[in-house]
Amino acid sequence: MISKFNPPKKIIKPNGVYSWIDNVIFKSLDIGDPSEFKDEDLVRGHELIHGLWNRLEAPSDECIKYHILFKIELLKRELNHDVIDSLDKRTEEIEESLNKEGYKIVFDREYGLTKVEKSNQISKPYPSEHACRLQSPDKFDSFARKNCAVRNNGRCIDFIYGIKNGKSQVQSMRYKKSIWEANSARSHCSSHGGSFESATT
User: Theoretical Cys-Cys bridge with 53: which of 40, 63, 74, 184, CB 3.0 to 4.6 Å?
Assistant: First the structure.
């Protein structure tokens, strides 16, 4: 019986074949969806993931995926998230790689597992403008746009504001490709610590 599958699947053994074991178990974390946790349980769950990571008591990829979900939820609720150990550094590297490829970590409620899926928010094409992402959109509840919020050498830069609890912050900057060369926009974005994506066409 392979218990990793849902529902479990049986192993068919031909007659005469010798077997040492009756079951095959694939170890996987079963913590639940962090977005459904109460604040105190969210904090404890985050600490649990770090403990599992340091004690090598769980698959590293599962620790990383769960840690990404816990981190997103902590920041969304404006709870404290401190950099503790190597898990934080590795998580940041994986998140950056996923974002560049247009993917994100989500929790599959049907199977109770973490998984990677295509992110419409991250991979959304920008046919007429370059984009500079300053903060994750997951931190906010709604968004507003202000065209030509600032100018750089006479060229307009549009702001996308993320809004949460009545407060707004600049979530991303947009550069119209008709007036901004990709390299120039990328340089400006980099100087503000952003993640750059050039216009798709």
Answer: 63
What distance in Å separates the CA atoms of residue 100 and residue 89, rounded to the nearest whole number? 17
Q: Domain-by-domain residue ranges, the chain?
A: 34-120, 126-197
127 three-class SS: coil
Least reliable range by pLDDT among 26-40, 144-158, 177-191? 26-40
Name the burial class of residue 49, with classes exposed (0-12), middle (13-18) and buried (19+) by CB atoms within 10 angstroms of its CB.
buried
For 76, phi then psi, to 5°, come to -60, -35
Residue 24 neighbours by CB under 8 Å, 6+ apart: 1, 2, 3, 11
Q: pLDDT tens digit string along 83-115?
A: 889 999 998 888 888 776 667 777 766 556 666
Q: Report CA 172 to chain centroid distance, whole Å.
A: 16
User: Would you say residue 159 has pLDDT above 80?
Assistant: yes
Question: Burial, 185: exposed, middle or buried (Cβ in 10 Å; 0-12, 13-18, 19+)?
Answer: buried
100/78 Cα distance (integer angstroms): 25
